[in-house]
Amino acid sequence: MTNQSTKYQYVSSAKLPTKLGKFLIHGFVELESGQEHVALTYGEWQSSETIPIRIHSECLTGDALFSTRCDCGAQLEKALQTIAQQGKGVLLYLRQEGRGIGLLNKIQAYKLQDEGMDTVEANVHLGFDADIRDYGICQLILEKLNVKNVNLMTNNPKKQKALTEMGINVVERTPIDHGITDDNRHYIRTKTDKLGHQFAEHLLKK
Description:
Structural class: alpha/beta
CATH architecture: 3-Layer(aba) Sandwich
Radius of gyration: 17 Å
Shape: globular
CATH class: Alpha Beta
Strand content: 25-35%
Helix content: 25-40%
Number of strands: 7
Largest sheet: 7 strands, mixed
Order of helices and strands: EEEEHHEHHHEHEH
Low-confidence stretches: none
CATH topology: Rossmann fold
Mean pLDDT: 91
């Protein structure tokens, strides 16, 4: 792996008991921007083991406010449940709201979607690419946590590609088709058609 210590830094770790189990929370920071990220871990492992992980981008509306405009909150909960049930795993929680455009820009994008645009068109209309997230910090986090082989819980092939390019061995990709509702079915269809996300087709036709 390329050394990322000049760009990112580990800060500290602490116990984090939750309704799903007793996790540890680990803090990391991007040195140039000051942006903070965390990882939650459950259990212990050897570097040779294949560890279930999820890279989850912050979504205040879905994760904390229970919005059904997206599937983020349901996927976050499912990933943590899976990690606890399997007895080990990592959730990387990246502070990249709105696929990287930030919370207030995301609200503006929501308004444009209310007026008829899809999620990609709205981001582009605001002057952004459809997805501007950067997964570079994942390399330092996984290195710090002694994770080399993963079962990646995602529907987004770009995350798998990013990890592979960092030297992480993605042994398996597990779909996480949770949180699809009547409110977000069009949104998820757009992610599938325009961003390459991989959802079971039958789930989008209900």
